[in-house]
């Protein structure tokens, strides 16, 4: 395949990885542990959207050349609300109690891994191992100069990623909530002494992180398909993106996602596509060896 065509595909895949990685690094920046259930949160988001689009039949009439209809709007709203609430509830009943007992980050991470396995099993029990799609119709691609192809859905995915990035920037740097989140990330004890309700900030962080993850899951489902383990397969690329960009840095996570996505796709020009999932491992190890704080360093 032409290098430029692979580059376009890499940007699209990288946008999805980056969007999910922003939610992952946001939660890490405040909670200070790796959430291994993050990929399964993505899966939950895509299946909640599937309920609206396919099970309720609200997305059967596509808009123009898109593969989806106006039903995608309530689907996104339900997914954001559902995943955000699930993340908040799991934090309240699991992570909060572990924090109160003074548990370390390894215990917290293992607990999140258990939550992810449980959620994946529930999704498999409800929907089964079969792969689904939001739409079975043919999505006609647009032809760009140089005979390059891009689908309207893929343009939509990049646009949503850009909007979410702008929205997260405004939230973190132009609102009181964002300032409180950054203060809690820097020093939660000092933030608490200063009058910030850190428990509420953690709850808000889980909700926002879950919402971003849900959107990333829906964009992934638009690009590919839904399976009970689809989000889990994206967990390593998202962690690679987070470490590449700098742990706790949302903008670095987006850039890291683009690097991972583009590198994965370009690598198929020289290696068997079956080896593509190993590319994030190589990037991850290289970054840990030569620049463990990431491109932009660790911050929020």
Please explain how this structure is put together:
The protein is mainly α. It has one domain. Helix content is 70%, strand content 2%. It has twelve helices and two strands. Strand 1 and strand 2 form a beta hairpin. The longest helix is centred in the N-terminal third of the chain and has 29 residues. The chain is globular and about 60 Å long. The chain starts with a helix and ends in a 10-residue tail after the last helix.
List the defining traits of the structure above.
300 residues, mainly alpha, two-stranded antiparallel sheet, 2 strands
Distance from first to last alpha carbon: 38 Å
Q: Which percent range describes the beta-strand content?
A: under 5%
What do the pLDDT scores average to? Answer: 89
Q: What is the H-and-E element order?
A: HHHHEEHHHHHHHH
Shape, please?
globular
> Which structural class best describes the helix and strand composition?
mainly alpha
Oligomer designation: single chain
Strand order of the largest sheet: 1-2
Number of helices in the DSSP assignment? 12
How many domain modules?
1
- Rg, Å, rounded: 19 Å
Question: How many β-strand stretches?
Answer: 2
Low-confidence parts lasting 5 or more residues at pLDDT below 50? Answer: none
Query: Helix content range of the residues, please?
Result: over 70%
Sketch the major β-sheet. Answer: 2 strands, antiparallel
Summarize the structure.
The chain has 300 residues and is mostly helical.
């Amino acid at each position: 395949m032409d290098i430029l065509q692979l580059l376009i595909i890499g940007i699209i895949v990288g946008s999805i990885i980056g969007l999910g990685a922003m939610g992952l690094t946001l939660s890490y920046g405040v909670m200070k542990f790796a959430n291994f259930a993050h990929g399964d949160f993505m899966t939950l988001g895509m299946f909640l959207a599937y309920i609206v689009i396919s099970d309720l039949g609200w997305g059967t009439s596509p808009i123009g050349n898109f593969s989806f209809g106006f039903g995608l709007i309530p689907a996104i709203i339900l997914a954001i609300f559902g995943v955000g609430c699930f993340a908040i509830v799991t934090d309240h009943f699991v992570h909060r109690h572990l924090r109160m007992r003074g548990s370390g980050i390894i215990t917290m991470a293992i607990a999140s891994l258990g939550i992810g396995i449980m959620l994946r099993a529930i999704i498999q029990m409800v929907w089964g191992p079969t792969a689904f799609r939001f739409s079975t119709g043919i999505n006609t691609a647009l032809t760009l100069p140089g005979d390059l192809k891009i689908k309207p859905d893929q343009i939509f995915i990049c646009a949503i990623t850009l909007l979410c990035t702008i929205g997260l920037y405004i939230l973190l740097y132009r609102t009181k909530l964002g300032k409180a989140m950054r203060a809690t990330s820097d020093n939660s004890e000092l933030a608490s002494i200063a009058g910030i309700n850190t428990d509420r900030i953690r709850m808000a962080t889980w909700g926002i992180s879950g919402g971003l993850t849900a959107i990333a899951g829906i964009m992934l489902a638009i690009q590919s398909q839904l399976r009970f383990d689809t989000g889990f397969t994206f967990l390593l690329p998202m962690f690679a993106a987070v470490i590449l960009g700098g742990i706790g840095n949302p903008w670095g996570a987006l850039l890291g996602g683009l690097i991972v996505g583009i590198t994965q796709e370009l690598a198929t020009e020289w290696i068997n596509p079956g080896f593509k999932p190993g590319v994030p491992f190589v990037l991850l190890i290289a970054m840990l060896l030569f620049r463990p704080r990431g491109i932009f360093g660790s911050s929020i």
